[in-house]
What does this fold into?
Amino acid sequence: MRITSIETFALRWVMPYALTYARGEYGEREALLVRVRTDDPTIAGWGEAAMWGGPFAVTSAVIEREIAPLLLGEDPCRPEYLWEKVFQGTYYHGRKGILLACLSGVDVALWDILGQAAGLPLWRLLGGFGRPVAAYASAGYYRRDYGLGDFAADVAAARAAGFHGYKMKIGNVPGVVHQGVLADVPLRRSFADDVARIRAAREALGPDRWLMCDATTSLDLGLALRYARVLEEVEARWFEEPTQPENVAGCAALAARTRIPIAGFETETGRDAFARLIDAGAIQVVQPDVIQVGGITEGRKIAAYAQTRHLTFTAKNYSTAVSAAACLHLLYAVPNGAFFECDQDPMPWRESLLVEPAWTIEGGFAAPTERPGLGLVLREEDLAPWRVTP
It folds into this structure.
């Protein structure tokens, strides 16, 4: 079997309301899917490449004009080799950032193909540990015309739906690391007001469910420590991306001075960066984004390294059904996999995009299906309403 084509599908959808977080605001959901075709007409793989806020034209061009020529004609059932071929072939300008995000999308599609060719679900090929993963709701952005009572009601609804926890955004306050550099972020509030949101979430969620708080890489050590004291009071499950990922020393100092585990960093790429964070003691919940960090190939190596340090491994999941399936298969496959993130914000490309379900959630626990590869059944024509030209 040989690779015959690699193509991208740029998707855009205008949301009914804008979402604000510490680094900005957005009113559209965007995604970039990747399809790898083979000379076997019955086998094609789907992947997704992270392009959060970046131009479609750049991401699509990297995949179709730089990565694809390196892989056309190759055996798709050698994802480790093909990953390394792209990494070494783009070494002088790649290695991190957008190149690895683009490679992530292709890599996920190649693992999907390998599973289909083997007739096995991907989680079995990746190790087959096979333990259902506790699901938690993810939303909690700042919004216009959205008071504390509205927010608390949404948190309570997530509890009623059976989720084991709820993740919210925090940190949209004066003193963030990008203040005066990025454009003014809407809905900025005082630290005291942000603390009130955290306490309202805990009250609505109850004492027996997890509360996760995400500062989206926006705090320095001093401000992060102020938040950490509050998160200790409300028994938060973790403090996500409190600092910038480059601030390894600052994040390690924070971790050493709080009993709340630090989770991160979904915005980081590559196993070497995660090894530095783990070795420094900067993170206790190891949390890459499979469609940004380097795909399944990098993700499983990071999970294995985390296991040697007795750390929990999880993954960001805040996009389409394709990235959700990739995330869940990896979490389900490894012994330290935990916490399946379930995006609750408006998005038309989750389960409704699929002809058949690719996973189940029962009693608050998620598991992939036994269908080969990622188990995805979707049709190109169903993407047409949201497809845009890069």
Summary: The chain has two domains: 3-119+380-388, 123-368. The domain at 123-368 is CATH 3.20.20.120 (TIM Barrel). The mean pLDDT is 97. The longest strand covers residues 3-21.
